[in-house]
C-alpha cells in the first residue's frame, strides 16, 4: 500500500509546473520561484463530486434562463457597487488584502447583515470563540450565520450538503487542504485544487462563494496567478494601517466594471460605510496653509473630491529628494519637468514631497492641475483659497487639457460648497450658459492659472 511519492515543481508566481527545478520560470520570467511539492492524486477521493450526470450539453443561448442572473444585495451598498450591483448567484469571488487590513471583519459583517440568506462562514484561521467575540463586537447577531472551523474540504463539503447554505465564505483559501493532494496547506497545488473544488461547487449549485486570500509583500495575491483566472471577481481591500479608511476595489470583474470604489472606515465596532467620501477626504483646516489643493476626481461612477498636499523646500544635500504618496511618482516628475521647462520655475534644486490625503491612490488625470498648483503654492508659500478646486489634466507642453464628465465634477464641487473651480477652456463647450452656482475659471496655460491664483 506504499505508493511512490510523486513530486513536481511549481512556480510560486504564476503556477507553472515542471518536472525538474529550473532557475528561471519560462512562463512568467521570474527567477528563483520554483518550489517542490508533493503531489499524489487518487482519483475517486475528490471532496466535491459533481452532481451532473453525463456532463453538460450545449444549449441555445436564449434557452438559458435569464433569471439565474438575478443579483442579490449583500446588505452593504459599498460592496454591492464594487461587485457591479450585488452578488451574482454562483459567482466565486476572491478578496485579497494584507494581513490585518480587515478582510475577516468585512466578510463576517456581510455574513451577519445579509438578509434572508443562510450563510456558512468557514474559518481556518480563527477559533469559534474568536469569531463569536468579533461578532459581538460588530454588534449583530440575529442572523442565520453558521460558523465552521475546518480546513479539510472533504469535511467542508459534507457539512455544506447538510446545511444547504445560500452563501459560503472561506477564510482563507490558503488554509484549506483537499485530501486528494498531499502537499501542505497554502502550497500552490493545494490552493489550485481547493479553489477548483469551490469553483465547481459555486457553478453547479448557484451558491455565491467568497474566498479570502492573503497577499504577498509586493502586493500580488499569494499563490498562483491561476487563482485569479479561476474566480469571477478579484476584489482588493487596501488602505494603510495608519489610516482608518479602507478601500475596496475590483481588479477583475466578470459581472461589472472594475472602476468602482467602495470606501469604509474602520471603527471600534467594525467597518462603517462611507457614503459621501468627499467630505471625509478633505482634511480639516483651521487656517489656510500653502501647498494644499482640492481636485474634483472621478472614481468609477462617483465624483470624489481629493486633497493633494505638497511640500517644496530647498534641498539640504546635493541631490534633491522627491517622494510621492498616492500619486504616480513618474507623473509627478513629469509635471515638475513641465513647470521647470515650460514655465521657468526653478524646482530641480528643491526637495518635493507630495501626499494624497486619506491614503487613496489616484489614477484620474484630472488631479494633475491640482498637484501642480499645490507644488506652486508651497514653492511661493502662498495659500490657495480653500474654496477653490481643480479638475484638469496637464500635458507635456504645459497646456491644460480637458477631462471627462466635467459637469459631474463641477456639480459635486458646487454641492460641497466650493466657490470656484479651475477647468480646461476646452471643456467649456456647452457649459457657458449653465449656472452651476460656482465660479468657473476656464484656463488653457499654467502661467494663466498662476496669475489668477497668485497675482
Ligand atoms: P481582520 O479582519 O482580522 O484582518 P484580516 O482578516 O484582513 O487579517 O482585521 C483586524 C484589524 O481590524 C485589527 O487590527 C483590529 C481592527 N478592528 C477594528 O479596528 N475594529 C473592529 O471592530 C474589528 C473587528 C477589528
Ligand atoms: Mg483574517
Brief descriptors of the model:
alpha/beta; 455 residues; binds thymidine-5'-diphosphate; 4-stranded mixed sheet; binds magnesium ion; Rossmann fold
Task: Please describe what this structure looks like.
- This protein has 455 residues and is α/β, with parallel strands linked by helices.
- It has three domains: 7-38; 72-275, Rossmann fold; 280-454, Ribosomal Protein S5, domain 2 (2-Layer Sandwich).
- Helices cover 25% and strands 25% of the residues.
- It contains eleven helices and 21 strands.
- It has helices spanning 77-83, 103-113, 128-138, 153-163, 188-205, 226-230, 277-281, 329-343, 368-380, 406-415, 446-454, and strands at residues 6-11, 17-18, 34-39, 92-97, 119-123, 145-148, 167-171, 209-214, 233-238, 245-253, 261-267, 270-273, 292-299, 302-314, 322-325, 350-356, 388-391, 393-394, 400-401, 420-424, 439-443.
- The strands form five sheets. It has a nine-stranded mixed β-sheet with strand order 6-5-7-8-4-9-10-11-12, with helices on both faces. It has a four-stranded mixed β-sheet with strand order 13-14-16-15.
- Helix 2 packs across helix 3 and helix 9 (368-380) crosses helix 11.
- The chain is elongated and about 80 Å long.
- The mean pLDDT is 86.
- The structure holds thymidine-5'-diphosphate and magnesium ion (MG).
